[in-house]
User: Fold this.
Amino acid sequence: MVPPPLAALLGSLLLCCAGLTKGVKITSAVQPMVEKAQGEKVTLPCTFTLAPEDQGPLDVEWILIPTDNQKKEQTILMYSVDRIYNDYYEAMKERVRFTNSDPKLGDGSIDILNLKSTDTGTYQCKVKKAPGVESQKIQLTVLVKPARTKCYIEGSQETGSDLILKCASQEGSPLLSYNWRKLTGTEELPATSLLNKDTGELSVKNASQEYSGTYTCVAANRVGTDECFVVLNVTPPINAAGTIAGAVIGTLLGLLLLAFLIFCCCKKRKEKKYEKEVHHDIREDVPPPKSRTSTAHSYIGSNRSSLGSMSPSNMEGYAKTPYNKVPSEDFERSSGQNPNFPPSKYDLAYKIHDITVV
Assistant:
């Protein structure tokens, strides 16, 4: 059993030690986890009170404990000896600040601006005023809102066919959920449809024209939503056989027309070539025409030679031949009327049995 004087002494020492360790007290509500969206601002609270026993300088320090255990803890902001130090962490430079410009008034909370997904981690606020020390941790999770959500239809949109309305966000932190709604007509999803909220697929069986309309898909997570639209137009089946037959007939007609044009061009070329050849043959085969003057002189010369070789006894047959049938007009003209003929070399003429010889 401890003597009463010694027990009183031990009690005084315990109260003194308790006062020393509990002099600084963080008064902000405990928030073990905070979730915010990327690009937003977050305030991490750290208010405190001081005890009269705390006589040392006041230090307020914020430390980032990364989610990756391989990385070291990083001081991001500090208040010490009436001065703020905010250049410890380059990744948060100019994005982190004390909520109160004078933390010694009992508010060591900080604001982080324009949050990024890399800001996710555990943040620790440590307040020291010798000999008192106290700290508090807050888990910050930066989530990405759904974004760039796209809607599209997979499968045939013909009556009686099966199709799928698909929806997917290209950005967004899990867990993402999807929900489809119809905006036109009955504004109710088809009776034969089945929705998968995790994948964003709306399966439709045995589609009918009543299912046609505008549909919207809403993608959501804990920090935001995003949506897209798609138009479903269910139509009767297309006559595939008629379409194929029409395409074949059209192709054949086109080929026939092309063949006809080629035939016409070839025929035209052959006609032109034939005309050129005929014209060339005519020029080569036909001799040049003789002049009338040379023909007449030739005819007269032949008659003279014949007359010169004839005797008076056989001149009677030639005397009956009419002299005016020489085949030349120029020969019948007098020398005075035709300037092309030179004057005659003979001035005398004589007759033999009624034929005048010059």
